[in-house]
Amino acid sequence: MALPEGRARRVGHSFQRELLDRTADGRCRLEGTRLIGVGHRNVQAALAYFAQRTHRSVINTNPGIPLDLDGYADDLDRAAAERGVTCELLVGRDAFEASPGRILLPPSTLLGPTAAHTILADDETLIFTGAPTPSGRTTGWASRNPALVEEARRVLSHLQEAARPAGRRDYAGDRAVRVLRMLGRGHTDRQIAGRLGVSLRTVSGDVARLQHRVEADSRAALFAKLASRVV
After folding, report:
1. Which of 135, 165, 195 lies at the terminal end of a domain, its last residue?
2. How many domains does the chain have?
3. Which of 3, 33, 157, 227 could disulfide-link 28, Cβ–Cβ 3.0 to 4.6 Å?
4. DSSP character string of the chain
5. Enclosing domain of residue 201
6. Segment 133-157, tens digit of pLDDT
7. Cα separation, 63 vs 166, whole angstroms
8. In CATH, what number is assigned to the domain containing residue 178?
9. Which residues touch 115 (CB under 8 Å, ≥6 apart)?
10. What is the structure's pLDDT at 148?
11. Are 190 and 200 spatial neighbours (Cβ–Cβ below 8 Å)?
């Protein structure tokens, strides 16, 4: 029986507190659990590497909506799709409604209660964001501890059941999202047009429409708005 959203949210928050408590001193004494990265870039790179070893399903929960210009999340989704892996993104409903970044999320994105930044893969591995370092840097952890993975599976199941698809209301479209990510990686409009097989005018039009949708008067302002994190 599915839990009401409010109760599922409390279950998710409780699990998040548990993960933070277990990693509060920079160590996790659970057998089969190890630190995989410190700092956002290193953690994302570790996830991209981990994606290569994923063979069945991925559940990814994200309380906020940051713009990933490094493309690791994009690479994770693409690599999963190429191998027939089901990859589901669960985003906090409040964050989705408040962030301009919602226009980048595909219609299949699930909106509902979340639990930290958590990925469950192949029913045997949990990847999660732990307590930050004293200087505030993100820490990423991987665990194959059966008890913790089983608890994560139970919690994420409740969160999924309480969530609903975002639909197509705000989505900017696959091409526009690809244009934006390529711009963020330093490609010129001409390079993007060549890679996507479209005209320069099409690329410029996509960017102009994105700026209009988030009320940004320049490309720099567009990136600044989409890169803001709402938690």
Report:
1. 165
2. 2
3. 33
4. -PPPHHHHHHHHHHHHHHHHHHTTTS---STTEEEEEESHHHHHHHHHHHHTT--SEEEEEESS----TT-HHHHHHHHHHHTT-EEEEEEEHHHHHH-GGGGGS-TT-EEE---SSEEEETTTEEEEE-PPPTT---EEEEE--HHHHHHHHHHHHHHHHT-EE--SSS---HHHHHHHHHHHTT--HHHHHHHHT--HHHHHHHHHHHHHHTT-SSHHHHHHHHH----
5. 174-227
6. 888 888 889 899 999 999 988 888 8
7. 15
8. 1.10.10.10
9. 11, 12, 13, 15, 16, 19, 61, 155, 156, 159
10. 92
11. yes
Tokens matching residue 64: 């906020």
Least confident of 1-5, 119-123, 227-231: 227-231
Half-sphere exposure of 129 (CA within 13 A, CB side): 22
Considering 46-50, 82-86, 104-108, 119-123, the range whose residues carry the highest mean pLDDT is 104-108
Sequence-distant (6+) residues with CB within 8 A of 83 are 54, 55
Report pLDDT for 6. Answer: 86
Q: 32 is written with which tokens?
A: 């089969």
Alpha-carbon gap, residue 125 to 60, rounded angstroms: 12
What does the DSSP assignment read for 80-94?
A: HHHTT-EEEEEEEHH
Phi then psi dihedrals of residue 28, to 5 deg: -130, 115
Task: State the pLDDT at residue 230.
Answer: 43
Q: Are residues 156 and 70 in the same domain?
A: yes
